[in-house]
Design brief:
The protein is mainly α. Helix content is about 75%, strand content about 0%. It has one domain: Four Helix Bundle (Hemerythrin (Met), subunit A) (Up-down Bundle), CATH 1.20.120. The protein is built from five helices and no strands.
């Protein structure tokens, strides 16, 4: 089964140092779930500035882990600068959340 993430960029950054990679994964698993939850709450509460901050903060991590949600996070960032309704971004938010839930599970299995 294909993973929802890729470790190739992290391997390059870590120079294939497994211990360093484990630390980066642990940090990701500690920081991103609460940030994702906070971003989701900010979007639901129409706090666009806070939603933007969380989306922007998480994007480099998604790039590092090769998680295919960059265009979706960029869409969320764009939404925060628009006057569009929550309904216009809800399916994107659902996709990001469901994808990351799978990534969290996969990373825990692979780096535990």
């Amino acid at each position: 089964m294909d993973k929802k993430y890729s470790i190739e960029s992290l391997k390059e950054i870590a120079d294939n140092d497994r211990d360093f990679m484990v630390i980066v994964v642990q940090t990701f698993l500690e920081e991103i779930p609460p940030d994702l939850k906070a971003m989701k709450e900010a979007i639901i509460n129409n706090n666009r500035e806070l939603a933007y901050q969380f989306a922007h903060k998480m994007k480099p991590n998604f790039e590092m882990f090769g998680i295919d949600v960059i265009k979706d996070i960029t869409s969320i960032e764009s939404w925060t600068k628009s006057l569009k309704s929550y309904a216009s971004i809800s399916s994107t938010l659902d996709y990001v959340t469901s994808t990351l839930d799978i990534v969290f599970k996969e990373l825990k299995e692979d780096f535990n």
